[in-house]
Hints:
By secondary structure, the chain is an alpha+beta fold. The chain is built from three helices and nine strands, in the order H-E-H-E-E-E-E-H-E-E-E-E. A hairpin with a 5-residue loop joins strand 2 (43-50) and strand 3 (56-63).
Amino acid sequence: MQAALLNKSPVSVGDMPSLLEFTPAAAAKVAELVLEEGNPDLKLRLYVTGGGCSGFSYGFAFDDTVAADDTQTVTEGVTLVVDAMSLQYVMGARVDFEEGLEGSRFIIHNPNAQTTCGCGSSFSV
Length: 125
């Protein structure tokens, strides 16, 4: 049995499921906002905090630093950063940007959320 495990070919990074999807629409909007800020080193940081009507809330901020335990997802040259504590709540989620009748906003489609509030900014697991 061990020999079979040792002979198994390694999995390439491209075959592994993404920890977080950062859509091209979201990346394009972040690129636009970074350009307005005038600091090309900025990255979009997604974080989760306690609170909100459903227990946890999503937050976004620009950050020009990346900690050793941060997870980075790059789409079209734009970086989304998530800290290790927040990652457990958003693993497998899709960060998107939508424009519609209700306005423009970043949307998180989170498979870990059991319930969400009407505005989409808070959730429970």
